[in-house]
Amino acid sequence: MVRPLKFRKKDYFWIKEKFPDFYSLLKNTAHPVGAEFYIELADQDAYGVIFDGTADVLMNEVTDEGELSKDGLRFEKAWDYADREEKTSGDTQKLL
Question: Number of H helices and number of E strands within the chain?
Fold first, then answer.
């Protein structure tokens, strides 16, 4: 099992409404933990499927000018948060 993705609850529910196809990749292994939803991933292949879905969302959110739309920027920020790595130092965790 690889490390879980960790979406903020507000981002998880926003994705559910705005990007239902991508949400369908998350919902079966998602569970709430505090203020986040953890998406459990069985292996690197499962991560790859979700990562490819992320690329699909972002490609569809590029404007005619070649920039990400407002929703695309928010999605990118949500993904960056969810896919971050945590560095453990003693009893505290620090976000990289």
Answer: 4, 5
Q: How far is CA 12 from CA 1, 34, 85, 92, in A?
A: 22, 13, 18, 25
Other Cβ atoms less than 10 A from the Cβ of 52: the count is 10
pLDDT value of residue 50: 98
Residues in the chain: 96
Residue type, position 33, single letter: V
Distance spanning both ends of the chain, measured CA to CA: 21
Instruction: Give residue-wise pLDDT tens across range 18-30.
Output: 999 999 999 999 9
Separation in Å, CA 66 to CA 29, 56, 78: 34, 15, 20
Q: Is the pTM of this model over 0.90?
A: no
